[in-house]
Amino acid sequence: MIDAKTWTDPHCPVARAVDIVGDKWSLLIVRDAFDGARRFTQFQRNLGIAKNILADRLRALVDDGILECVPNANGTRTEYVLTGRGADLFTVVLGLRQWGERHAFGEGEKHSILTDSVDQRVPTLRVLDGDGRELISSDTHVVRDLGALESGSDGRM
Amino acid sequence: MIDAKTWTDPHCPVARAVDIVGDKWSLLIVRDAFDGARRFTQFQRNLGIAKNILADRLRALVDDGILECVPNANGTRTEYVLTGRGADLFTVVLGLRQWGERHAFGEGEKHSILTDSVDQRVPTLRVLDGDGRELISSDTHVVRDLGALESGSDGRM
DNA sequence: CCGTATCCATTCCGATACTG
DNA sequence: CAGTATCGGAATGGATACGG
Fold first, then answer.
1. Rounded to an integer, what distance in angstroms lies between the CA atom of residue B11 and that of residue A57?
2. What's residue A14's pLDDT?
3. pLDDT 10s digits, B101-143
């Protein structure tokens, strides 16, 4: 895994991540895995994805060390479970979910998560600088000081 | 924007977000915008993307309200700047970057950000539950209690 | 149930040439 | 500089049929 391939931008971590999980389905499969899906048919039902595509994506995710095949109790079939590397995608999926909730629905449109519920159990993301100061207001969800964000070691995110 | 189209999964915020920015280039363009890129040629140079594709993606990002065309000082050309909606993608890009740094490089490989530098100015992501408790260890970056994460209002992330 | 194999349509992307 | 127009190849995705 992380084998030799032609990266879109070999030095940029964002580009590498996008090359690995930036297709139409991978992150949705991972989302379903966070949701508790483990078996081929569960993914297929939830996603409405064609079987050959699903098989292909699962294979790729396993190759990249994001999912892992484990036999179930009876040893009758294998299940797909997140590895540590896969679980680490949680911030990405959560970030996409938060953004989608706020910006990808029309006014009256329903979606699957209540954003304003006080007692919601869904975690939220915070962005902190090196000193633990919060860079993003959780109310407005807008970056406060963009200038502070532009300085990577070589000016690249 | 957020116009009628055939969503991969109409009710899932994650799926909608992926439908909008889940292609090969969009998030990399947004990354460069966070990096300070504003002009067509800047994006093109940084990304090594074909010009027609870039024009297409910029148009789409503007249509989706993620970028905005503004005339520069002299009014001689237009520049592309992030809107609030675009800036809100920061957590997604940052999440991808963190994941890429940790999991998308080989052992000895260099990448553009120093992950272990103490004085780095790069912000980090934290995942907090409703009570402000941290769900993810910043050291291991591994989700501590997956069970707590599986309960959306309808069991969907 | 869990895939594989085949076929086809569509989309995506890059290279090149061209324009104001 | 900032795009548009066109073309061809590659990758992606879906439907269906088939096999262990």
1. 22
2. 95
3. 999 998 878 666 544 444 455 678 888 777 777 776 444 444 4
- Over range A16-32, report the average pLDDT: 95
How many Å apart are B82 CA and D16 C1'?
A: 45
Mean pLDDT of B35-53: 95
The owner of tokens 């959306």 is B152
At A40, which amino acid appears? F
CA distance B40 to B51: 9
Residue in the structure block whose two tokens are 């970030």: A95
Alpha helix ranges (H) inside B64-152: 84-87, 90-103
Cβ–Cβ below 8 Å for B2 and A102: no
Separation between Cα atoms, residue A64 and residue A148, nearest integer Å: 33
Q: What is the pLDDT of residue A123?
A: 78
Q: How far is residue B17's CA from residue B7's CA, in Å, rounded to a whole number?
A: 10
Closest C-alpha among A61, A68, A70, A94 to residue A82: A68
As a whole number of angstroms, the distance between CA A82 and CA A35 comes to 11
Distance of CA B157 to the CA centre of its chain: 18
**CB–CB of A112 and B28 under 8 A?**
no
Residue with smallest Cα–C1' gap to C1:
A41
Q: What is the mean pLDDT of residues A106-131?
A: 66
- Residue pair B129/A121 in contact by the 8 Å Cβ criterion: yes
- Strand C positions closer than 7 A to protein CB: 1-7, 12-17
* CB B100 within 8 Å of CB A64: no
A150 burial level (CB within 10 Å; 0-12, 13-18, 19+)? middle
Helix B51-63 to helix B40-47 angle (10° resolution) is 120
Q: What is the pTM of this model?
A: 0.86
